[in-house]
Design brief:
Distance between the termini: 26 Å
Largest sheet: 8 strands, mixed
Order of helices and strands: EEEHEHEHEHHHEHEHEEHHEEH
CATH topology of one domain: Rossmann fold
Shape: globular
Number of helices: 11
Strand order of the largest sheet: 6-7-8-3-9-10-12-11
Number of strands: 12
Bound molecules: adenosine-5'-triphosphate, iron/sulfur cluster, magnesium ion
Strand content: 15-25%
C-alpha cells in the first residue's frame, strides 16, 4: 500500500479491502465478474499515483466505485474514506471525512463529485455534449458547483487556448477533447483528481504535456491518480505506483523504488516490455475475471519457479506492498527479482 510515513504527506483518500463484483448473464450462463479484489490504496496530498495494468484488469471500475458511478448490477464491499484536507476548499465541502462506499447518492452528488473528487473519465470526449460548445458546458459546470473560476481560467489550467471555448466537441482534436475533460474536472478545484487514461491515443509530445500538467496539479497539493497503459509516462511523472493484475493491486509503493526494484514478477514483466528494456512482452494472457483461480492469478505466466499456493493477500513492508507469496516468503523480494532477472 502506498501508505504515509510518520511525517509523510497526508492521506486524502484511503481505500481498504475494496471488492467490486458484477453478476452477469442469466440462468445457466449467470456468472460473477470479480473486477476489483481486496484493493488497499492510499492517495496522498501532493503526490501523483500511477495505476497501471493490462486492459480489463479493473482500473476503471475502481474509479467508478470511488465516485458512485457503478451500475446497479455491481456489488461493492470494503471502504474508501476521503478526508478533505484543511484549506480554502473546506468552505464548500466541509472537513468531515466521507465514506465513499456507503455515502448516499445525494452526498456523492452534492459533496463529492466535482467538489472533492474530479474525474476525467476514460474517453472524456464522449462525455461532452455534442450540441453545445466547450465554453457553454464549462460555464454550466462552474455554475452548478458554485465555483468562482472562469471558463478562461479552466482552459488555461488545462493548457488549452481561449478560442476552444467557442468550439463544439467534434471540432476538437483528441488531445484537446481530453484536456477539455480535464478542465471540467478542475472546475470545482477538487483536492482529489482521478484521471482515467487521459493520454490514450495522444502522440508523445501531447502525452508528455498532459502528464506534466497532472504532475503540476499534484505538486500544488492535490492527490492525483493517473490511470495509464503508458508505463514510460508513468515512470516519468509518478511519485507512487499501483500495479493491478486480474482485479488485484499486486504491488504498490514509491515509484522510484518499484520501477527500479520491482518485487512482483508481473511488475518486472511490465518493465521488461518497455522499449529501453528490450521490448519483451509478458507471455500469455490474463485470466477471465469471471473464472479467477484460487491462489495466485499470475501463476500461469510467472517466470519464478516456485510451488506457490494460498491466498496472495498483500504483504506490507517498508512503505511498499506486494501480493506474491512463494514458499520462500521471508526472502520474497529477492525471489521475485530473481524471477524477473531470468526474463
Ligand atoms: N457494468 C459492468 N458489468 C459487467 N462487467 C463489467 C462492467 N464494467 C466493467 N466490467 C468488467 O470488469 C472488468 C474490469 O473492467 P475495467 O473497465 O475496470 O478494466 P480496465 O482495467 O479499466 O481496462 P482498460 O485498460 O481496457 O480500460 C472487465 O472484465 C469488464 O468487462
Ligand atoms: S512467485 Fe508465486 S505468488 Fe509470486 S507471482 Fe509468481 S506464482 Fe504468483
Ligand atoms: Mg479502463
Amino acid at each position: 500500500m502506498t501508505g504515509p510515513g510518520p511525517s509523510g504527506p497526508a492521506t486524502v483518500l484511503a481505500v481498504r479491502g475494496l471488492d467490486v463484483a458484477f453478476r452477469v448473464g442469466r440462468g445457466r450462463r449467470a456468472r460473477t465478474v470479480r473486477a476489483v479484489t481486496g484493493a488497499d490504496l492510499d492517495l496522498r496530498a501532493g503526490r501523483l499515483t500511477a495505476l497501471v495494468g493490462e486492459s480489463g484488469c479493473g482500473k476503471s471500475v475502481l474509479t467508478e466505485a470511488l465516485t458512485g458511478l457503478l451500475p446497479g448490477t455491481a456489488s461493492v464491499r470494503g471502504s474508501a474514506v476521503l478526508t478533505p484536507p484543511a484549506g480554502p476548499r473546506e468552505r464548500s465541502t466541509g472537513h468531515d471525512p466521507v465514506g465513499l462506499i456507503t455515502a448516499p447518492e445525494s452526498v456523492l452528488r452534492d459533496r463529492v463529485r466535482g467538489r472533492l473528487i474530479g474525474l476525467v473519465p476514460q474517453s472524456a470526449a464522449t462525455h461532452l455534449t455534442p450540441t453545445r460548445t466547450v465554453g457553454a458546458q464549462l460555464r454550466e459546470t462552474l455554475a452548478r458547483l458554485g465555483a468562482t473560476a472562469t471558463v478562461a481560467d479552466l482552459l488555461d489550467r488545462a493548457a488549452l487556448p481561449g478560442h476552444v471555448a467557442d468550439r463544439y466537441p467534434h471540432e476538437l482534436s483528441g488531445g484537446q477533447a481530453q484536456r477539455a475533460g480535464l478542465a471540467a474536472a478542475l472546475a470545482g478545484d477538487p483536492p482529489v483528481l482521478l484521471a482515467d487514461e487521459p493520454t490514450a491515443g495522444l502522440d508523445r509530445p501531447l502525452v508528455d504535456h498532459v502528464t506534466a500538467l497532472l504532475a503540476g496539479l499534484a505538486a500544488e497539493g492535490r492527490a492525483v491518480l493517473l490511470i495509464t497503459h503508458d508505463l514510460r509516462a508513468a515512470r516519468a511523472v509518478a511519485d507512487d505506483v499501483a500495479v493491478m493484475y486480474a482485479s488485484r493491486l499486486v504491488e504498490t509503493g514509491p515509484a522510484a523504488e518499484v520501477f527500479t526494484e520491482p518485487w512482483h514478477p508481473y511488475t518486472a514483466g511490465l518493465l521488461a516490455a518497455l522499449p529501453d528494456a528490450g521490448f519483451t512482452p509478458v507471455p500469455g494472457h490474463p485470466p477471465e475475471l469471471s473464472a479467477l483461480p484460487d491462489g495466485c492469478a499470475f501463476a500461469p505466466r510467472c517466470p519464478v519457479t516456485a510451488d506457490c499456493t494460498g491466498d496472495p493477500a498483500p504483504v506490507h513492508r517498508d512503505g511498499r506492498s506486494v501480493s506474491c507469496h512463494p514458499p520462500t516468503a521471508p526472502a520474497l523480494p529477492a525471489t521475485a527479482r530473481s524471477g524477473a532477472g531470468s526474463r
